[in-house]
Design brief:
By secondary structure, the chain is an alpha/beta fold. The chain has helices at residues 2-79, 85-88, 141-151, 209-225, 234-237, and strands at residues 94-100, 103-109, 114-115, 124-130, 157-159, 165-167, 174-175, 194-200, 230-233. A 7-stranded mixed beta sheet has the order 1-2-6-5-8-4-9. It starts with a helix and ends in an 18-residue tail after the last helix. Mean pLDDT is 78; it is low at 31-91.
Length: 255
């Protein structure tokens, strides 16, 4: 009986030691695996960083390529020819040229200072004088036209110092050139039945030979197309308020 108890005690002791050894074994194995896992992470980490860097390089290259492409585009746009001036510049008047027996006529049609009309009867020609009092050049065609625009007035023709005739309003339309006025037969509203011709000259100046030639040629053309009754100066139809055409030599005018 005593031997059996000793045997049991020894068996339990051996069994406990065996369990203890097994526990130590598993504990040591887990520790080794953790160490190995830590070493694996520590060893692999640089590779992960290198992979990230390598993965980032293409992004940098792409960014550079995008910038280069944009730069190339900007350079192309810089050297791209500008659109034709007529698409970006708004002209005040339409300008074309023609020639007839009066010489050179430039169509410089204005968009103000007249009223559209149909079938009007023209029997009077009124001669005026104009100059540019606001600019540096009193004989500037564009300067004079700009003044007309400010006052919303216009004539059918403007004769420059070199004899070039500028058509500002078509003959068929009513130009605002005469103002309050009256012709010798008592008719008023002179704009309705007249053609207005402006000649560029200052108040103390003289007209050029080219201007007289152009005026007479233009009068001849108008007489062919219309039954002209009067060829008058502005001062003759509005003597109380007008003095132009200044210094004109009517002996040189075919009227």
């Amino acid at each position: 009986m005593i031997m059996n108890r000793k045997y049991i005690t020894i068996s339990l002791t051996i069994f406990s030691l065996a369990i203890l050894l097994i526990g130590v074994y598993f504990a040591l194995g887990k520790s080794k695996r953790e160490v190995a896992y830590v070493q694996t992470i520590t060893t692999d980490q640089p590779n992960v960083t290198e992979q990230n860097i390598e993965a980032g390089e293409p992004q940098v290259e792409i960014a550079v390529e995008e910038v280069d492409e944009k730069k190339d585009t900007e350079e192309i746009e810089t050297v791209k020819p500008a659109p034709p001036e007529k698409t970006v510049v708004k002209k005040v008047v339409e300008e074309t040229e023609e020639k007839n027996e009066t010489g050179k006529i430039v169509n410089k049609l204005i968009s103000w200072g007249f009223q559209k009309a149909t079938d009007r009867k023209i029997d009077t020609i009124i001669v005026h004088s104009s100059y540019d009092a606001l600019g540096d050049d009193p004989y500037s065609v564009d300067g004079i036209i700009a003044i007309y625009k400010q006052y919303a007035v216009g004539a059918h023709y403007l004769i420059a110092r070199d004899g070039v005739i500028y058509r500002l309003v078509e003959d068929k339309n009513i130009a605002y050139h005469a103002g309050v006025s009256e012709v010798p037969d008592g008719r008023t509203n002179v704009n309705a039945f007249s053609i207005g011709i402006e000649m560029i000259n200052t108040k103390d100046g003289k007209y050029t030979d080219e201007q007289y030639d152009a005026l007479n040629g233009l009068i001849g053309n108008l007489q062919k197309d219309n039954e002209i009754k009067y060829i008058l100066g502005h001062d003759e139809i509005a003597p109380d308020r007008k003095t132009d055409p200044w210094n004109i030599d009517w002996k040189r005018v075919d009227r």
